[in-house]
Specification:
By secondary structure, this protein is an alpha+beta fold. About 35% of the residues lie in helices and about 30% in strands. The protein is built from one helix and twelve strands. The N and C termini lie far apart (about 125 Å).
Length: about 220
């Protein structure tokens, strides 16, 4: 065997080993990259879950604070208007309970149901020049409470055609509260009109004496 032939075979083996090393090294690098990406993704998911959990906890804490604040407002007599003699005010609007009527026929069956209560709300634009946006007072956020464990959200029959209230003009709307006919033991009803449609988290509050309720 010639010296040149021996050198050629050694070079070939060296090239083969270099190729094998390159393939193995490349595979190791790819494996490390994939493992690193997976680790980063895992850390990212854990971080995202932590952020979502923190957001949920913050939202729940905010809801609790809002409920506590609402209860504090409800507990203060100064926040309630007497519907028989007072109107409520919101910005340039005067809001008044103009009538309360028991609606429907009394159920005298084996399991009698209380009749629906219709509460008429009159809203007047007190501004001398500004046209106001008007929204219905109805919806589940508006409630009527008899103080004896019965509380209902409002259904509504709208008696207006557009959502603008001209200066000095009034609109009347009838809110319906199912099975809210006052009991013999009921002395007053508590109405909370939601301001949500006006972009405000809160209510107008009015106490309605039972003496205002008219029966058919």
């Amino acid at each position: 065997m010639s010296k040149e032939g021996g050198r050629g075979r050694r070079r070939l083996r060296m090239l083969i080993w270099l190729a094998i090393g390159f393939v193995l090294g490349t595979g190791l690098v790819i494996a490390l990259l994939v493992g690193g990406c997976a680790l980063l993704a895992g850390v990212g998911l854990v971080g995202a879950e932590a952020v979502l959990k923190s957001t949920d906890e913050d939202a729940e804490a905010l809801r609790r604070k809002e409920l506590e604040y609402e209860k504090a407002l409800d507990a203060d007599p100064k926040n309630w208007s007497d519907a028989s003699v007072e109107s409520m005010r919101f910005r340039d609007m005067e809001v008044k309970v103009s009538a309360v009527t028991v609606s429907g026929v009394a159920d005298k069956g084996a399991f009698p149901r209380r009749r629906t209560l219709a509460v008429e709300i009159s809203t007047r634009n007190c501004s001398a020049s500004q046209v106001l946006r008007y929204s219905s007072w109805g919806g589940y956020r508006t409630t009527l409470d008899d103080g004896e464990g019965c509380k209902r959200g409002a259904e509504y029959r709208v008696s207006w055609e557009d959502n603008e209230l001209q200066p000095g003009k009034s609109r009347t709307e009838e809110l319906l509260f199912e099975e809210m006919e006052p009991r013999a033991s009921t002395s007053e009803l508590r109405l909370k009109l939601s301001l949500h449609e006006y972009g405000v988290q809160g209510h107008l509050r009015a106490k309605i004496p039972v003496s205002m309720v008219k029966k058919p």
